[in-house]
Amino acid sequence: PIWLSLGDIAVGNGADVKVDSITLLPEVTSLLSDVKVIRYIDIDRVALTQAGAARIKDWIKPDDTPAQVRVRGVRIGGISLALDAGKLGPFDATAALKEDGALESASLRSTDDKLRVTVRPEGKGVAIDLAATSWVPPLGPQVPFETLVAKAIAGGDGVQVSSITGRALGGSLDGRLSLDWKKGMSLRSEE
């Protein structure tokens, strides 16, 4: 196979995004066609600042122009985020893409394997499954969860958590909640 590799990449004046290496595995037969196909993109050690993370949505914004390049899958290893509220990561992520470039599924897991999140499109939003074991959230209250399992649907108006169960601090958690940000931020929980 033919691989294309880039290394030691920095984006932004303050190096808001730093990447150790990016490796592409192209579909060789597509190099002579109108649409180039990348079988896989492998990205290693990604460090993002809060400003860099906020810009990502602008880089991946879809438009109506025909695709010149089609990507089938992406793996990102060693993602860390330096936010104003604290540090997140490191995480590993994978994404599978459909023929039209739309997300088929994605997964995120902490490198210590204590947290796993999967995401897939559902209706006008995304379905999210979260599972954690012996995990302490890196931001907010440092509650040590023995276990935490949640199923949710996120969309433009908010997040509906249809099921959340867990064990922490000698007690248990079981319920549903919704977070709405369409008309200001509101949180509602159900037992």
Which helices and strands occur, and which strands form pairs?
Layout: E1 4-11, E2 17-26, E3 36-49, H1 50-59, E4 69-71, E5 73-83, E6 86-97, E7 103-110, E8 115-122, E9 125-135, E10 145-155, E11 158-168, E12 171-180, E13 186-190
Parallel strand pairs: 3-4, 3-5
Antiparallel strand pairs: 1-2, 2-3, 5-6, 6-7, 7-8, 8-9, 9-10, 10-11, 11-12, 12-13
How is this structure best described in words?
This protein has 191 residues and is mainly β. It contains one helix and 13 strands. Strands 1, 2, 3, 4, 5, 6, 7, 8, 9, 10, 11, 12 and 13 form a 13-stranded mixed sheet that branches. A hairpin with a 4-residue loop joins strand 7 and strand 8 (115-122). It is globular, with a radius of gyration of 19 Å.
